[in-house]
Queue: 3 jobs
Job 1
Amino acid sequence: SQTIHQWPATLVQPVGSPLSLECTVEGTSNPNLYWYRQAAGRGLQLLFYSVGIGQISSEVPQNLSASRPQDRQFILSSKKLLLSDSGFYLCASTIAGRDYNEQFFGPGTRLTVL
Amino acid sequence: GQNIDQPTEMTATEGAIVQINCTYQTSGFNGLFWYQQHAGEAPTFLSYNVLDGLEEKGRFSSFLSRSKGYSYLLLKELQMKDSASYLCAALDSNYQLIWGAGTKLIIKP
């Protein structure tokens, strides 16, 4: 079965500091991978998705970037955090064997920027 | 543009039935998902509809009308643990999920 690991679970960072969030997937090969952000009480905002190693599509222009150095590793980064970057960051993967785009989510990282 | 509409919040009584509606407008359509999200947790998959009609899974059912751009999630025999947000998401022509803001369901004893 598929498992997604995200770390850290919670993070408090000062404005202007860098960020690196990591997501790794087990139990599948060549998944589509996604980074979402969810502000308090809001829906999911797609930030980046990747269909393969080194292939990143950005959905929202902002101070965040993403990389996929390995098939099952997806990293979200920022050089300088803004207050508006606070939120719940979720990594998601498509599920092997499904012929539709069901997405399976990791446990998330709750980021507070002060 | 692409848009998903669902009510912000609903309240229901334990043991009762509740229907959460969702309307969508997307560039192309390849199916409709419902996810459940408890506070502070990640969303979990509930259902997927691509053809018109009702899909039943235990206490939860999901309905789709493609001609009307409409879906609903029906929850029967409500339990306190059903208190959560319910997210509607439509799969567009590029197979990307377009997400609604979610409906917060409050269950009262």
Job 2
Amino acid sequence: DAGITQSPRYKITETGRQVTLMCHQTWSHSYMFWYRQDLGHGLRLIYYSAAADITDKGEVPDGYVVSRSKTENFPLTLESATRSQTSVYFCATGQGALSYEQYFGPGTRLTVT
Amino acid sequence: AQSVTQPDIHITVSEGASLELRCNYSYGATPYLFWYVQSPGQGLQLLLKYFSGDTLVQGIKGFEAEFKRSQSSFNLRKPSVHWSDAAEYFCAVGARGYSTLTFGKGTMLLVSP
């Protein structure tokens, strides 16, 4: 049971390029989340999704786009990457409703040069 | 909106000594409280959670936490620290009716021999 996977695990890209980070889960959890982790800021929520085709902004959504056509996938796209988007990105899932706990993927380390 | 403060950025504890990591939250009603641990290069793993009931909750790896409403705190404790406990610890708060969590900025635990 793979649970939650993220790909790629490491990515280097150039300023202005589009890059997509993938998140896949095998649990059929209704909720999925994208966070970024930066030194001194902890974890900040970028976007989240309550179900397929339902997404909502988090604390720091600017510069990011998400979609969720299938329950199991929740890609995060940086439309035009900037150096300030250099970070570690975590995907998480949650069962929603009565369960508020979240389960995290291994993360993607993104460097924008 | 809820918020979380972890006052200590770094804590160093000798192996075998007891540990207490502090967490203070701000929320008007009864919060849902969580502690997560992140080992280097890994995603976050849930240690324990508080929703209601007994204010002393037990988690994995010998950790426990106590919810104190009067102090708006949810401190994490362990009676005897092992070198493998060295990691970053995050406190998080959620609320009934809200699907997202707010994380503190984390406390890095260093364990000295």
Job 3
Amino acid sequence: DAGVTQSPTHLIKTRGQQVTLRCSPKSGHDTVSWYQQALGQGPQFIFQYYEEEERQRGNFPDRFSGHQFPNYSSELNVNALLLGDSALYLCASSFPRAGYTDTQYFGPGTRLTVL
Amino acid sequence: AQTVTQSQPEMSVQEAETVTLSCTYDTSENNYYLFWYKQPPSRQMILVIRQEAYKQQNATENRFSVNFQKAAKSFSLKISDSQLGDTAMYFCAFMNRNAGGTSYGKLTFGQGTILTVHP
């Protein structure tokens, strides 16, 4: 049973560039959430996708956008990169339904460094 | 808005001993979940244990158990028979389950507690 996968593992960009991170959910899951984790901090919620639409959004600027595909995989796009965007980006998948305990399972993360 | 507080930045324990990590949260909701995740140096966030707020019985998973005090909004994690592999950062997290409410379905994390298990 494949877990949540993310690519790439790490990447380096320069200020002003754009980046796309990718996530494939755990088998059987249809909901994908993205989190940003600064070094030594707890993850912060960016947004959540369900049925190819953004369902929830955290306090992140519009430079952060996403997409979900019909196979439930997802992308996180960040435009006009700032130094402060350097972080570990975590993807989590879940199957939130009545009668189920909604639990999010995380991928290994993508380490983004902005120079 | 919900907040989660972990007041112990670092903890250490000897192998085979028991350690308790503290977590408090603040919410006006009455339908929610609480979780403990561990994040080892490999950085993969791994679910340790979960608790539904409507259940009075404390959750247990092998060597891991919680002490859930709903009125006090406290959710501590007890690790028994600590092992070297338990060394990690531990995060307490809250999820609102009131559909239509703010922060529905998203995890709010604490700042984490670094646990080191010594041989």
